[in-house]
Model the fold of this input.
Amino acid sequence: MSKGIAQSHDHEDTLIALPAGAFSINMLQNTGTQFKFEVVNNNVDTIKPFFIEIFAIGFDFTEQCILQQSINNINLETNLEKLWGPQFISLGIGTLPPTGHYATTLGVAYNAPGSMIKIRLFGTINGQNVIWVGYLKK
Done:
C-alpha cells in the first residue's frame, strides 16, 4: 500500500487571482497571416517569473508561430519556456517590470470571422503566486 500526501494551502502556496485591471491587452497589428499584441503590467510590482499562455479560439497558429517578442521594445532572444502547437502557445518570459510592456508577433495559418485569443498570465509577485486571465478579439 502507498500513502498519498496533499500539498498544504498555506499563504505561500495559494494562487491569487489578480483583478481585471492588473494587466491590459492591446492589439497592435492584425493581418490575415499574423497579429501583434501587447500585455502591459499595470501593477506597481515586478512579476517574476512571468509566464504567458495563449489559446487560439477560431483560428490556428502557423508551425513556427512565434515570430518576434519584446519587453519594453527590447527583443527577447531566449525564453525560460517555449511550447506551441496549432491552438496553444506557452512562453516563460523571465521578468516583467512594473508598467512593463510585453509584445509578441504571432503567425496565423487559418483565421475565422470573430476569432479571439484567451491569454492566461501567471507568475510570482512579492513571493505570492498569481494568475490573470484576459481575452482579445482579433
Remarks:
- The chain has a mean pLDDT of 90.
- Residues 58 and 112 are 5 Å apart (CA to CA).
